[in-house]
Every structure is written in C-alpha cells, then in structure tokens.
Amino acid sequence: MGRITATELSWSVKGHRLLDNIEMTAHDGKIVGLLGPNGSGKTTLLRLLAGLRRPDTGTVRYDDTSLHDLKRRMLARRLAVVEQDVTAHNHVSVRQVVELGRTPFRGHFDALTEHDQRIIDAALERVDVTDKQHRSWHTLSGGEKQRTQLARALAQEPREILLDEPTNHLDIRHQLELLDLLSKLDVTCIVALHDLNLAARYCDHIVILDHGRVVDAGTPETVLTSDLIESVYGVNVLIDREPTTGVLRVTYLAATPSGTTARQAMQLDAQ
Ligand SMILES: Nc1ncnc2c1ncn2[C@@H]1O[C@H](COP(=O)(O)OP(=O)(O)OP(=O)(O)O)[C@@H](O)[C@H]1O
C-alpha cells in the first residue's frame, strides 16, 4: 500500500486551464472517489497522477518520492492504471491481456514463471473471467473487457490502482463485486465514478471536481450534501440513509431548470 499526494497541480491546453491547483491525498489502503460532472477533469487528473501527462505546475508524490524521480520501471511495479475503453490488438487472448500485468517483473525474453501463472490464474478468477481466458479480446462484451482490464491490473500486484469509471459497462452485480473487491484489497485506490450511491457506499474519501477545481473533499457524509450536488450537478436530490445498511442514499428528484446549477444562478444574479 502506498500514499498518493497531489500538490498544487495545474495543467492547461492552449491557454485553457483544465486543472487548477489540485490538492488531494489518497492514504494507504483507502478508496478515494473522484466525482464531478462530464468534463470536470477526472480523467485528466488521473492521467497526471499516473505520470501519463506532466503537470505545468505542482507535484505528484508516491509516498515521499516525487513522480518525477521515480524510475518508470519502479512506477510500473507499484502502480496499476485501468483506463476507460482500453483497446488491445484484436487477436490477443484474454489471458494474454492479463499476462501484460506481469511485464514490469520480467526481462524482455523471460518466460512467465509458475509463480506468474498462479498470479494470472488468481486475477482471472477474482474478476470472473476464467472461463473466457482463451477467447479473443475483441469478442468480449464491454463489461467483460472492463473486468479483464482489472484482472491485468491485479496481476501487477500493485500498491496503488487508478481506475477511470471502471463500472460504466458493468451490470449491477459486477459493479458491486468490483467495488467490494477493491475495498478488500490492501491497495490504495483512486477511482473516477459517476454513481453517487456507489461512491457513498464504497469510498473512504471523496474529491469533487468542477471545472478543473476541487470544490469539496472529505468523507461521503460530509461531502454528499443536497446543496453541493445541486450546485455541482444541477440536480435536486433527496439524501437519506438506506434503512437496512445505514449507508447514505441519494435519490435524484429532478434537474434544476434548464440545467442551471445553483452556483451559476447565483453568479448570474450577482452580475
Ligand atoms: N488534450 C486536450 N485538449 C483539449 N481539451 C482537453 C484535452 N483533454 C481534456 N480536455 C478537456 O478537458 C476537460 C476535462 O476532460 P476530462 O476528460 O478530464 O473530464 P472528465 O471529468 O473525465 O469527464 P467525463 O465524466 O465526461 O469522462 C473537458 O472539457 C475536455 O474536453
């Protein structure tokens, strides 16, 4: 398990600031949910945290080491990234995709060891794709591909996992199983999610992004308030607790008129 810290992170494209002064920490073994409307910057932030993009300003640290100082191979040995809608060569099998998770631990020409094969078997089993392991990747459904990508990440035996909307193709059972699995792993997770109820149930900490800024962060109880959800998403909600589990429950009532968020309405009033 490791800690991921972002400090004063900013990133712009052609003069447009897409991430602005982001501060966040994912503590050892915790699940951090990145929430926010379409285009708020979740994927961009995950890419910066993964070292796939370089910030204009600010630092990402894994434990106490700056991403900048971490050798690529060392990072690949500890960090797994599950991106949205990953493509793979059509003719690779599901098992070969999962085998890629062992790449950071092997030399170029080394065969997979028995130890590697056992890890791959376990990863396939954990996401329920063992029976599809010899199928071609391109024959899988969207949800099966997503689960296979998680198996690849698990085969890496990472200390940290970054996941970009890992549940968007999954049926309800597999959504719950995926988040259950993440919550049982000794791994630090940062996961972009759209489903506020899944976030309330599984995340230890939530970071809400809007227009590339962190607008709130904290436990689901402190962050998921009706005012904040209305202000950021432009949707009226009812917040209560599910009676059997006591977990926070968000019921969507209606979009606010013409999609104007409360904050935008306030800004218009002030002009
Ligand atoms: N390379 C780029 N060039 C120009 N604009 C970009 C680039 N990458 C991202 N953006 C813009 O930055 C904003 C944030 O995009 P991002 O994909 O991070 O949002 P998101 O919160 O993940 O959205 P979604 O929920 O729709 O997946 C969007 O408006 C997007 O169009």
Report on the structure:
It comes from Streptomyces synnematoformans. InterPro entries: AAA+_ATPase, ABC_transporter-like_ATP-bd, P-loop_NTPase. Keywords: ATP-binding, Nucleotide-binding. It holds the Pfam family ABC_tran. One of its GO terms (molecular function) is ATP binding. Helix 4 packs antiparallel against helix 5. The chain contains ten helices and twelve strands. It has a six-stranded mixed beta sheet with strand order 6-7-8-3-9-10, sandwiched between helices. A four-stranded antiparallel beta sheet has the order 2-1-4-5, with helices on one face. The protein has a two-stranded antiparallel ribbon with strand order 11-12. 33% of the residues lie in helices and 28% in strands. The longest helix is centred in the middle third of the chain and has 14 residues. It is of the alpha/beta class. A hairpin with a 2-residue loop joins strand 1 and strand 2. The mean pLDDT is 91. The protein folds into two domains: 217 residues, P-loop containing nucleotide triphosphate hydrolases (Rossmann fold), CATH 3.40.50.300; 47 residues, no CATH class. The chain is globular, with a radius of gyration of 20 Å. The structure holds adenosine-5'-triphosphate (ATP).
Brief overview:
This protein is α/β, with parallel strands linked by helices and about 270 residues long.
